[in-house]
Design a protein that fits this description.
- There is one protein chain.
- 57% of the residues lie in helices and 6% in strands.
- The chain folds into 2 domains: 2-181, Fido-like domain (Fic-like fold, Orthogonal Bundle); 194-264, Arc Repressor Mutant, subunit A, CATH 1.10.10.
- The strands form 2 sheets. It has a two-stranded antiparallel ribbon with strand order 1-2. A two-stranded antiparallel sheet has the order 3-4.
- The protein has 266 residues and is mainly α.
């Protein structure tokens, strides 16, 4: 599966970031995604496009395949050199440079994101292994193609707008990761607090469902009706389970009458 291949590539990019990135290594990454594992060699134009089939928008036409070896050699020499004081700038330039060369027939975006992770990890940044650029670029792909499109139209080689956007993206990526780490820590503390609390399987299932909402609260709180749906049980059993959770200080009861709901106690 490609998802497994992407994980494999990302792990290699991060854990082996001190090793030079070579053509052979890039081709190995590509082969994990596609059967070819080699630079493109076709004579037709290579176009960077977005949009549905038949309604594609052309953002850029990449260099012809006969120039790939020379362009990639230059790129890899720069990439493996200690030539940029600001690692975030280098990561943004590396991503753009690779995408503009577009050395493979397919998968260039995924490999460009792995290269970004490689550059960041090579700088031994604190907690660099906890965040990855791939997910946030996917979530903001409309912005991504919009900025890429504007840069490709430049004739003066000014990539300031790209660097500014990409660095802000990295900042947002790190912020999102910190929120996720805080949620993980909160879950761990919750279960540690209740490691000796006797809970039945229905209660555990409902609690796990509520914890999935972190860092936000479970929408609308837990109600008897929701409990019956999640735990696949009766209203009487749900009410009894919830009352038991309140008594054990696992949950707290709010509201009255039909407006009663429950929240986890952290």
């Amino acid at each position: 599966m490609q998802s497994d291949a992407i994980v494999e590539i990302t792990i290699d990019a991060k854990q082996n970031a001190k090793q030079p990135l070579t053509k052979e290594r890039l081709c190995r990454w590509h082969k994990a995604l596609f059967p070819m594992g080699e630079y493109r060699s076709g004579k037709e134009d290579m176009k960077i496009v977005s949009g549905a089939w038949g309604r594609e928008k052309i953002h850029y036409i990449a260099p012809p395949s006969k120039q790939i070896e020379e362009l990639m050699s230059e790129f890899l020499i720069w990439l493996n050199s200690n030539n940029e004081k600001n690692i975030f700038y280098k990561a943004s330039i590396a991503h753009l440079w690779f995408v503009l060369i577009h050395p493979f027939d397919d998968g260039n975006g995924r490999i460009a994101r792995a290269i970004t992770d490689f550059v960041l990890a090579s700088a031994s940044l604190t907690n660099a292994n906890f965040y990855s650029i791939s997910t946030i670029i996917h979530n903001r792909r409309k912005q991504y193609y919009s900025v890429l499109d504007s840069v490709c139209k430049q004739i003066d080689l000014d990539i300031t707008a790209w660097i500014e956007w990409f660095v802000s993206l990295l900042d947002a990526c790190i912020d999102e990761t910190l929120v996720k780490l805080e949620s993980i820590q909160k879950k761990a503390k919750f279960w540690d607090k209740h490691r000796d609390t006797k809970l039945n399987e229905r209660q555990k299932k409902v609690i796990k469902k509520m914890l999935l909402a972190l860092p936000d609260n479970f929408e609308g709180g837990m109600r008897v009706r929701k409990y019956t749906g999640i735990a696949k049980t009766t209203r009487i059993t749900a009410s009894r389970d919830l009352a038991d959770l309140v008594e054990k200080a696992v949950m707290k009861k709010f509201g009255s009458g039909r407006g009663v709901y429950y929240e986890l106690v952290f």
